[in-house]
Amino acid sequence: MIASLTHFLHNKSAVYSEHFKAEALNFIKSLLSWKFPDKEISEKMLNDALNTIADSSSMDYPFPTSENSHFTFIDLFAGIGGFRLALQNIGGNCVFSSEWDAFSKQTYKANFGKLPFGDITLPETKAAIPKSFDVLCAGFPCQAFSIAGKRGGFEDTRGTLFFDVAEIIKKHKPKAFLLENVKGLTNHDKGKTLATILNVLREDLNYFVPDPQIINAKDFGVPQNRERIFIVGFRKDLNINSFKYPKPLDVSPSVSDILEKEEVSVKYYLSKQYLSTLVNHKKRHEDKGNGFGYQILENNGIANAVVCGGMGRERNLILDHKLTNFTPVTKIKGEVNREGIRKMTPREWARLQGFPDTYEIVVSDAQAYKQFGNSVAVPAIQATAQEILNLLDLK
Fold first, then answer.
1. For the domain 62-250+376-392, what is the CATH code?
2. CA within 13 Å, CB half, 389
3. Binning pLDDT at 50, 70 and 90, where does residue 150 land?
4. CA–CA separation, 129 vs 4, rounded Å?
5. Are the C-beta atoms of residues 228 and 182 closer than 8 Å to each other?
6. Would 95 disulfide with which of 7, 16, 61, 78, CB 3.0-4.6 Å?
7. CA dist., res. 181 & res. 140, Å (int)
8. Roughly how many angstroms between the first and final C-alpha of the chain, as a whole number?
9. Which pLDDT value is given to residue 54?
10. Residues in the active site (predicted)?
11. CB 211 within 8 A of CB 241
12. In this predicted structure, what is the pLDDT of residue 41?
């Protein structure tokens, strides 16, 4: 219900705002009934409460919907809004978003003003999606399908999160979609997973879907080696039968572009004991002929892909000799190293993913690393979405 209220208040289009009005008013009525149990909730009380909430919610969020939006989209598996930021940058109005993780929803609302709806697999969440919109965006998780001995069609995807995406496309028939996933989807389950996805999109849902492409974030202005598979599609009645993915930009980003210029907290510097553990761990793998282990980046190079878990940080260590106070501010074993070796900060990870510095980080460092590690790279999404818009004539 809170999601309905925020979608009602922050949708710029009256048509889409009206879609969420009934549920928003029901939520306000339930609050008033709880506060005034002995009163009959009148229409005037509802409207007064709505106006008060609207006034208090009109605060300037960092990334409000533009007044001059010229196309609509929905944001599934929204995370912290990487898709949304990219499509808003090129004139999009996000009319619905869905994300199940509570901390990601907190970050999303802090930056866009809307609280995403919850689990997209639930019928009540799907029911909240507006009837029509131009583009569907989704960075859905990769799962295997049970397709042994079957043709790998729509019904064979049941029980997977792709099925929910396909179901929404089937019902709402957007003009186009943009899907993003890990590079490993190309050979997941010996290629059967991707083959099933493409078969459903092309044959069952009747969309023109060009061959997917692996796109690297480093080619679009951020110094991160992040390869992801992009899948786009167009409704066949639009008579679009060709599509070119965006060409890499003529840029050479480097790690130095995203590093903090001022001294950062000592908490980001590794302890001597932790560093020793990493050195020993790497040596054990090297002795076995493996390439696993920590890595200290060159400032004129690019970062490894930022991912969840400690390895994402350990593979992206940097040298920073600006630290002047070596007194620990967190519980660590041993002293802080004197070699200048530290983790990147969450803000630096945000920059690696193309988030501007005005993007607010409102969660703990642990959650922030997780959120940015799970996010899409904004510039790569934006460049691909622009190519879609060019063909739809929605630019």
1. 3.40.50.150
2. 20
3. low
4. 10
5. yes
6. 16
7. 7
8. 33
9. 61
10. 142
11. no
12. 75
142 catalytic residue (yes or no): yes
| Per-residue confidence (pLDDT) for residue 112, from 0 to 100 | 94
Q: Are strands 303-304 and 213-216 parallel, antiparallel or unpaired?
A: unpaired
Collect all residues with Cβ–Cβ distance below 8 Å to 368 and sequence separation of at least 6.
346, 349, 350, 361
- Which DSSP letter does residue 188 get? G
- Please tell me the predicted confidence (pLDDT) of residue 345: 98
Tokens, residue 200: 């459903």
Residue 30's alpha-carbon distances to 1, 36, 40, 49, 81, in angstroms, are 10, 10, 11, 12, 29
Active-site annotation holder among 94, 137, 142, 308: 142
Pairing mode of beta strands 227-235, 207-208: antiparallel
- Tally Cβ neighbours within 10 Å of residue 287: 8
Q: Can you give the pLDDT at residue 15?
A: 66
d(CA 350, CA 369): 9
Whether the CB-CB separation of 217 and 226 falls below 8 Å is answered with yes
Domain spans of the chain, in order of start: 1-59, 62-250+376-392, 261-344
Alpha helices in the chain (DSSP H): 2-10, 14-19, 21-35, 43-56, 82-89, 102-112, 123-127, 161-172, 192-199, 272-287, 310-314, 346-352, 365-374, 378-392
Weakest mean pLDDT among 43-47, 183-187, 231-235, 389-393: 43-47
Please give the pLDDT value at position 147: 53
For residues 128 and 137, give the distance between their C-alpha atoms in angstroms, rounded to a whole number. Answer: 16
